Amino acid sequence: MTDRSANDSIQRVISAKDDDGLEAIVTNDEGVVIDPVFGKIPEDGPRYRDMGWLGASILMMKTQIGIGGLSVPQSFNTLGLIPGIIALTGFAIITTWSNWMIGKFKRNNPGVYGIEDVGKLLFGRLGRELFQGAYLLYYIFVGGSAFISVATGLDALSDHGVCNAVFIGVAAACGFFLASIETLSKISWIAWCGIFSILVSIFTLTVSVGVQNRPAAAPQFGPWSSDWKLVGNPKFAEAMSAIAAIIFSFSGTAAFFPIAAEMKDERNYFKAMYLCQAVVYVVYLVIGIVVYYFCGSYVTSPALGSAGPVLKKICYGIALPGLLVTTTIVCHLPAKSLFVRSLRGSQHLTTRTRTHWMVWFSCVFSVIIIGYVIASAIPAFNGLVSLIGAVLGTPICITAYGAMWFYDNWQFRRRADRGTWWIVGAGWAAFVTIVGFYCMVAGTYGAVKDVEDLYASSNFKSCNETRNGL
């Protein structure tokens, strides 16, 4: 088949719909699968469209549930229990809608692979570069924080056996090996192990703080009772920093695009997404309420240290496979974005040629080495990641999706009778966009203030002593 006829086939597939109005994945006369994103998928090539809905749901959970989620009790400590629950619930609803919008947008625009393609549709070539730049930078920094998390776990298990830089190097090496797995369907199998280990670790912590007399950071002698508060009294910067941490815990949204693109049947996307969001919300709610209730202001962030040194080792030991899986996913995603963009429209994308392997391993190595340099070189890393999360994470997990709704609905309905549901949808999309912009600006202010306070503190130590990982 010539390149021109292949392109014609792809265009026909993009316009083809099944009975439910979803894009059809068909085969051409030669028995080759034609996909709107990947093009021709031969039998002996990478099986990009081979992931079931349950595996997709597990991957979605793993993009969100990690050590970062253990910052929720600290956010509750800052905001108070009731405002904390309200903020957690509110952003769970907003991000669930954002994830729902991904499925609808993919249905209407089957050629979309990642958020960079959304940027191109919304704002042209400049939008594509800005959206992909934000996506890559965000996930590379998150990848660096994942290296820190793995290193922190190894450091806790070894009782500070070697320099932290060695553990970061070990994490980066493991990340390169695992992130080089070509397809998300294969990564979804190890994600089962990752989500199991991180959930067991989290609930081990939750149970342990409930049965212990007092948290590890509390005074160990004399009477003590938890000083948890229904409503906190934080300063504005403190409150926004706490809210930014909650948003960061739900910020796997942009990863749902490539996950949907690699599902065997995209009609099951919504089922996978709803299961993911329900599990994530319940886990965060239980962690936040139980750990904060029993620890009060003596909760640590991440919360694995709240139960004392022995249980900290146990929890990190259980969580280590989950931390490695997190490292795998957050390094694979930006590398895959670069890879697909570099080879899209070429036979090398779906055929295991020398060019295919050279480009793929180059993309993975580039992401790993940049993440390693960032993790090793930047002091006050947690504050910096909070800043990156506010500046980049908020737009790619909240703000962009309001614009996507208007792109899909404004042009198709501008001459139609706009009924009540259209007005409600438009109002909600505008609300989400405004909330996203506000959280980006206010969260950036809070994160900058945190970094300034950290550097101004007389207790500020060297970067190797202050890194706690996410």
TrEMBL record:
**What is this entry's stated membrane topology?**
Multi-pass membrane protein
Cite the entry's keywords alphabetically: Membrane, Transmembrane, Transmembrane helix
Per the database record, which ranges form the Amino acid transporter transmembrane domain?
52-448
- Say which domain of life the source belongs to: Eukaryota
Q: Membrane as a keyword?
A: yes
One Pfam family per UniProt: Aa_trans
Q: What Gene3D superfamilies has UniProt attached to this entry?
A: Amino acid/polyamine transporter I
Example GO CC term: the record gives: membrane
Q: Which InterPro entries match?
A: AA_transpt_TM
Major localization listed first in the record, in broad terms: membrane
Location relative to the cell: Membrane
UniProt-recorded Gene Ontology molecular function terms: L-amino acid transmembrane transporter activity
Annotated membrane-spanning segments are: 78-97, 135-154, 166-184, 189-211, 239-260, 272-294, 314-335, 356-378, 384-407, 419-445
State whether keyword Membrane applies.
yes
Similarity comment: Belongs to the amino acid/polyamine transporter 2 family.
Concerning PANTHER family, the annotation shows: AMINO ACID TRANSPORTER (PTHR22950), AMINO ACID TRANSPORTER (EUROFUNG) (PTHR22950:SF683)
Q: What is this protein called?
A: Amino acid transporter transmembrane domain-containing protein
Q: Which organism is it from?
A: Zasmidium cellare ATCC 36951
